[in-house]
DNA sequence: CTGTTAGCGCATTCAA
DNA sequence: TTGAATGCGCTAACAG
């Protein structure tokens, strides 16, 4: 292999290579490529051409060293497999990706030690900020106030009110769900939902109950807490029909539960939505679109949560600090399982 | 704000701060912290304490500048929402995360332009390598041979045989599926699968047919290509039962299809698995565990694909280049929907 | 064992 | 308009 002198050198081109090829100093090359106005047009052109010939890519490490800002942020998630983290992550990636910032992804696997390890590693890489994505809406321990960069919590709020957290509004979600069922002419509404240990389950139930009360109605039975699974949806529905065969709507805590509910309703001869309307939660497409009829559900706008968190972080990096828990509205995805009573 | 001189300065501590506090030179501080042996134990101790008092984190940018390696890799995905990318990404993150390397996540949204943009940005940040994750197993355009860093393709292979690609072995997956059904005593096996435009669908069918032939059997009817949905599973099953009411097993191209198949089988009075065994594909937990009975499925070991890709990239960064398409075996997740004929 | 010097790649003074 | 010099934070070569 004869050492070539041209662009074929394996060594990635550096600014000094560009400068030499263009016959100018490093400083001038830098100015030319960065659009500084103190360069003759002809010179600038020569530099730009040289840079292209060498496929020159400015070394962001060097830039970061000088600027003190790296244009990178850390995205700390606790469960990649979880279906909540992903849309949030997409929203954040989306809000950043358009611009100049790159995202470090770290999955702590729900382990506090590993999380701390990742935080240290990210700080070592001089990220400009952190987004912490949780897998459930229960408050989580703050990373602390001592960090040298801003932090925004998404989905799972920090337990420190001095931190900024972006979460979906689950209480309101319960409310709008019930209001939709009422608008469909339903009045005997039951609620089958997930694990009572989840704040999300309790909040949605709370919102639903409040909306019923506001309408002068009561829930059919009590909220049935269980697990977030199809199996629980089936079990709970069997119990429900036994006690309240006249139910005309079931509000579910998840799409999985709703699928189980629909299955048993149909088996027992109840038509959906003619006899009983069913609503899911999460708007998980694989479940809503496979359902017969298509499943009405609540969408938590998680991508929006991610985008908002990213924008807030951006603001905080710029010095505009917010704090507290900001709850974003959910929206209905209305489909066949909740047609109006005719 | 009076300018403090101690550790309370907002400026992140630097090696020179540590050196000053410990009363040594910068070089000595560096050696002490990096475990170089040419430092007196007592001095080292003093430096370490100083570093801790200042919460010193070595600036990886500066290190990267010197070393020429940054300890970062780019993970280029085309569809974050896709259920295939995530496990692969987890596996890769896993294989890296244990060590010293951080992962840049980029979602090109299936857009070649955006992908190119991300590649440039990542190279600017001097990543040590790239993993390109596709959303289907059809070959995709190579990023080219001119890149200054190694690239490994995962799930979707590169169309350039000089590149290294890690993919699941779909042909073999079809084979072991049929062999499992045969082992369950089934002989009248049908195949309902997804879009014929997907290589994955064609390869799985190919493997299944080969295994049947090897056993001296034929498929019941022809492979029924359609879409990857529950709806297609229902439709196809209705047609299948019409033509071949004696079928005793249905091999499905996805878990969604399988769910639709089971639903219609039961509606028509066929018991699963007593009369008809059903197998899914993907081992997507939300679908397999909600199914009644629990759904046997093929797991593509995607995390393993991700891990292998990461390890291969690691090797390539170290100079050990492989190439070609490496197919990793799939495995069966056997559950109630495929019990043996009694 | 410790400190001085040089330089990674770049942007930014300041002179020329 | 251009270029030489300085330094971002750190490591690695040397000299003491």
Automatic annotation (TrEMBL), chains A, B:
Domain HTH lacI-type: 13-67
Top-rank lineage group of the source organism: Bacteria
SMART domains (alphabetical): HTH_LACI
InterPro entries given in the database record: HTH_LacI (IPR000843), Lambda_DNA-bd_dom_sf (IPR010982), Peripla_BP/Lac1_sug-bd_dom (IPR001761), Peripla_BP_I (IPR028082)
Name of the protein in its database record: LacI family transcriptional regulator
Keyword field contains RNA-binding: no
Coiled coil regions in record: none
Keywords from the UniProt entry: DNA-binding, Transcription, Transcription regulation
């Amino acid at each position: 292999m004869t050492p070539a002198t041209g662009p074929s050198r394996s060594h990635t081109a550096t600014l000094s290579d560009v400068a030499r090829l263009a016959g100018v100093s490093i400083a001038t090359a830098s100015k030319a490529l960065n659009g500084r106005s103190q360069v003759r047009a002809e010179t600038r052109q020569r530099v730009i051409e040289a840079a292209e010939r060498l496929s020159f890519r400015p070394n962001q490490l060097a830039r970061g060293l000088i600027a003190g800002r790296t244009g990178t942020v850390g995205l700390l998630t606790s469960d990649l497999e979880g279906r909540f983290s992903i849309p949030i992550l997409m929203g954040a990636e989306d809000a950043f990706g358009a611009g100049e910032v790159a995202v470090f992804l770290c999955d702590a696997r729900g382990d506090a030690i590993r999380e701390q390890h990742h935080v240290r590693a990210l700080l070592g890489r001089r990220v400009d900020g952190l987004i912490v994505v949780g897998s459930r809406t229960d408050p989580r321990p703050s990373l602390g106030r001592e960090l040298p960069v801003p932090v925004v919590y998404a989905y799972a709020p920090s337990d420190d009110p001095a931190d900024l957290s972006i979460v979906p509004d689950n209480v309101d979600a319960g409310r709008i769900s019930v209001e939709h069922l009422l608008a469909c002419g339903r009045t005997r509404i039951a609620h089958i939902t997930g694990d009572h240990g989840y704040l999300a389950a309790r909040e949605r139930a709370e919102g639903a109950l409040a909306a019923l009360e506001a309408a002068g109605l009561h829930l059919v039975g009590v909220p049935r807490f269980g697990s977030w699974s199809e199996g629980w949806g089936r079990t709970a529905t069997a119990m429900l029909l036994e006690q309240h065969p006249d139910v005309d709507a079931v509000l579910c805590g998840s799409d999985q539960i709703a699928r189980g509910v629909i299955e048993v309703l149909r088996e027992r001869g109840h038509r959906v939505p003619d006899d009983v309307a069913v609503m899911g939660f999460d708007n998980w497409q694989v479940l809503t679109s496979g359902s017969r009829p298509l499943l009405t559900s609540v969408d938590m706008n998680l991508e929006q949560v991610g985008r908002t968190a990213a924008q807030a972080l951006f603001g905080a990096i710029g010095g505009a600090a917010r704090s507290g828990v900001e709850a974003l509205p959910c929206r209905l995805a209305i489909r066949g399982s909740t047609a109006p009573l005719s």
